[in-house]
Amino acid sequence: xxxxxxxxxxxxxxxxxxxxxxxxxxxxxxxxxxxxxxxxxxxxxxxxxxxxxxxxxxxxxxxxxxxxxxxxxxxxxxxxxxxxxxxxxxxxxxxxxxxxxxxxxxxxxxxxxxxxxxxxxxxxxxxxxxxxxxxxxxxxxxxxxxxxxxxxxxxxxxxxxxxxxxxxxxxxxxxxxxxxxxxxxxxxxxxxxxxxxxxxxxxxxxxxxxxxxxxxxxxxxxxxxxxxxxxxxxxxxxxxxxxxxxxxxxxxxxxxxxxxxxxxxxxxxxxxxxxxxxxxxxxxxxxxxxxxxxxxxxxxxxxxxxxxxxxxxxxxxxxxxxxxxxxxxxxxxxxxxxxxxxxxxxxxxxxxxxxxxxxxxxxxxxxxxxxxxxxxxxxxxxxx
Length: 384
Ligand code: SF4
Ligand code: SF4
Ligand code: SF4
Description:
The strands form two sheets. This protein has a four-stranded parallel beta sheet. Helix content is 46%, strand content 7%. The chain folds into three domains: 89 residues, Alpha-helical ferredoxin (Fumarate Reductase Iron-sulfur Protein, Chain B, domain 2); 150 residues, Rossmann fold (3-Layer(aba) Sandwich); 127 residues, Rossmann fold (3-Layer(aba) Sandwich), CATH 3.40.50. Helix 14 packs across helix 16 and helix 17 packs across helix 18. It is built from 19 helices and seven strands. By secondary structure, the chain is α/β, with parallel strands linked by helices. The mean pLDDT is 96. The chain binds iron/sulfur cluster (3 copies). The site of one iron/sulfur cluster (SF4) has 15 residues, from helix 2, helix 3, helix 6 and helix 7. Keywords: 4Fe-4S, Iron, Iron-sulfur, Metal-binding, Oxidoreductase. GO terms for molecular function: 4 iron, 4 sulfur cluster binding; metal ion binding; oxidoreductase activity.
């Protein structure tokens, strides 16, 4: 057996599987794709030879949403086993079916070049205060590229970056934004391409160390998870990190932010990386609850039971993804919300894409907004 797979079986506790099937019963992919079963893959990892596992196309179908990990009575960390399997599969030339012809992966690999000339600061307008040096860094991530790559979906993920800086400025923070920042590498890592993930990580870590910042703030949950969990694990990175919802929640508790009223109904999507991966459930809800006159209706499956937005790491988007997305949008709509509040740029892209699908009826169409944008637009500026 390949040593990395046997180590992953041990570390993920996969050998404890009792074949109860709770993982498959709760999995959003298995709900629509009956050929996919985490229970079967766990048992294949334990009992079959490695090649059989590594060549199984289903290893790329998992959204790594961690819902099955929450349900597993044996405490098996299925997504850790999945990641280890993908890293080994890449080594023998196996890979996922990349969505959009692999455009996102190509862009990420282009970003591994240290000599790349980027124009990633053009969105910062005169109303936003940023600095070349200081203690706090705002990590922008791939937002400057998403709106161009997915212009046909008509999303504006950069609004969340502008809103994050607006909120930080309101709190008296002028964040550093790095002109030579790169993609955090999240999607390459989860797609099994460790070599290029490492190049991006080492570039970012080097830039950040040279900048001298002491704290990094993220609006993207995937970037946040990558810097909080994966950079420390693989590269010993140890600078303090925070998600913008944590900053907002603290600022509200400390009465540094006062909000205008909003007399409508909203619901909220817990992003997998922010929720189940990092346990941040209360902070976004604190922010929503602080809005005067708002009515917040939870979806039936919320917090650690929330359903993923249907695509992970730009891989394996299919009719099954659309079914997951449309079902989740319907669940949001059933709360009678006027607005579907999100907290991840990928959720914004995938859900809005699904709403343009020919199968999307009015029961699955709902206006979306990023939480950080929603809050930034409601700040009482007179409180400065
Ligand atoms: S829920 Fe856990 S114990 Fe049950 S089949 Fe899945 S991995 Fe095995
Ligand atoms: S992590 Fe999510 S998508 Fe993957 S097997 Fe578990 S429940 Fe299914
Ligand atoms: S849901 Fe739409 S935007 Fe997301 S990967 Fe699929 S096709 Fe692309």
